[in-house]
């Protein structure tokens, strides 16, 4: 890489957490002759991009679907436009970290300074900026504030902070998930973690409303993480979380949860269906429901024994996990979403990457529901399996 690339990268790494925007503006202006530099952050619903001016205040948001930065964000490809005399190139560069889409870096620079090599360096600097934003969020609220177009409920604040991210990708798989209503979610959640040879994925269908639902989910998810990090197998992870929830609530509340553990070498998958999140598989254009043995939700009874079942995923498979806030939603005529509309939505999104699918299916769900109010949390997780 060039000296100017190294200079901008060093400046970003040395910047104070709240100064990333000012530093990237000054550095790109000095080293790349940029006329303007703007940072846009995707909101919690993944429908708007928030242009950051003076944090935590922002300019008017831009639509992910209709704006030029939104097109770059959706395609995850740079979008260039040349205009004016002398010509100036406006470049919209997507910002993502390991498949998790964060936003867009937009800048304008004279056309004579916009060579292919320059564009390549700017794309990589957008990746550096993304990683620095993720690190900076540990020490400042500014970028989390910029993500919201309205105030989060306290329960939603707790749930979003509990998530690992909204997308993740590596050679063997790609994952994407979304929670709705984004600014008022109660208890639904998802969690994942990968090692050298395994991927563990859990989806919880929260019980209750508000803070009580969020507290219940926090207890269960952290119990599952504690067991997983202690090296316990899937059955014991479910058992420990079950006992943690029962010990706190004595069966008064419980938590439907789907637990999955994928072998990255073989595709052999362990599953425990402890409740209502449902699992569909799209294979060679055919959508089918995978129905493991229905077992008790976490925390319903003391000393519940869980049994692990197995199935296989193959390269090219797409798995979709949805909560009852998706499959039980009824249209104005009374037809449940899972009966036909879900299959239509999954097939309509078959060419989209996993990170885009949850939002696309939820948009179809909104059309199915029409004017009806959201009656329950809606959670969707999509997994594309590539294998080794």
TrEMBL record:
SMART domains: PP2C_SIG
Gene3D superfamilies membership: PPM-type phosphatase domain
PPM-type phosphatase domain ranges (all copies): 170-385
InterPro entries referenced in this protein's UniProt entry, alphabetically: Bact_Sigma-Reg (IPR052016), PPM-type-like_dom_sf (IPR036457), PPM-type_phosphatase-like_dom (IPR001932)
UniProt KW keywords: Hydrolase
SUPFAM superfamilies linked to this entry: PP2C-like
Alphabetical list of Pfam families matching this protein: SpoIIE (PF07228)
Keyword Iron included in the entry's annotation: no
Identification of the protein by name: PP2C family protein-serine/threonine phosphatase
Lineage, highest ranks first: Bacteria, Bacillati, Actinomycetota, Actinomycetes, Kitasatosporales
């Amino acid at each position: 890489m060039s000296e100017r690339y190294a200079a901008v990268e060093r400046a970003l790494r040395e910047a104070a957490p709240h100064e990333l925007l000012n530093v990237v503006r000054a550095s790109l202006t000095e080293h790349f002759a940029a006329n303007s530099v703007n940072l846009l952050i995707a909101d919690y619903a993944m429908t708007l991009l928030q242009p950051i001016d003076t944090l935590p205040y922002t300019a008017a948001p831009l639509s992910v679907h209709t704006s030029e930065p939104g097109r770059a964000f959706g395609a995850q490809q740079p979008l260039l436009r040349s205009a004016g005399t002398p010509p100036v190139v406006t470049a919209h560069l997507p910002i993502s970290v390991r498949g998790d889409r964060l936003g867009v870096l937009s800048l304008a620079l004279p056309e004579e300074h916009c060579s292919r090599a320059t564009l390549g360096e700017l794309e990589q600097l957008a990746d550096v900026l993304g990683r620095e934003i993720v690190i900076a969020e540990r020490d400042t609220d500014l970028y989390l504030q910029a993500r919201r177009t309205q105030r989060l409920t306290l329960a939603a604040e707790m749930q979003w902070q509990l998530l690992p991210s909204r997308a993740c990708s590596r050679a063997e798989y790609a994952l994407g998930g979304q929670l709705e209503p984004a600014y008022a979610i109660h208890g639904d959640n998802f969690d994942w973690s990968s090692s050298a040879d395994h991927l563990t994925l859990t989806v919880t269908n929260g019980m209750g409303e508000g803070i009580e639902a969020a507290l219940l989910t926090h207890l269960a998810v952290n119990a599952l993480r504690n067991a997983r990090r202690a090296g316990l197998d899937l059955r014991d992870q479910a058992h420990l979380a079950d006992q943690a929830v029962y010990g706190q609530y004595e069966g008064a509340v419980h938590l439907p949860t789907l637990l999955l553990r994928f072998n990255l070498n073989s595709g052999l998958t362990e599953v425990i269906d402890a409740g209502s999140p449902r699992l569909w598989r799209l294979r060679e254009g055919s959508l089918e429901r995978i129905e493991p043995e229905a077992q008790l939700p976490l925390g319903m009874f003391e000393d519940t024994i869980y049994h692990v079942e197995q199935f296989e995923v193959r390269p090219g498979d797409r798995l979709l996990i949805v909560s009852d806030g998706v499959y039980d939603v009824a249209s104005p005529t009374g037809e449940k979403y899972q009966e036909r509309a879900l299959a239509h939505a999954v097939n309509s999104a078959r060419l989209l990457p996993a990170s885009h699918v949850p939002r696309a299916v939820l948009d179809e769900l909104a059309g199915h529901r029409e004017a009806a109010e959201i009656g329950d949390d809606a959670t969707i997780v999509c997994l594309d399996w590539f294998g080794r």
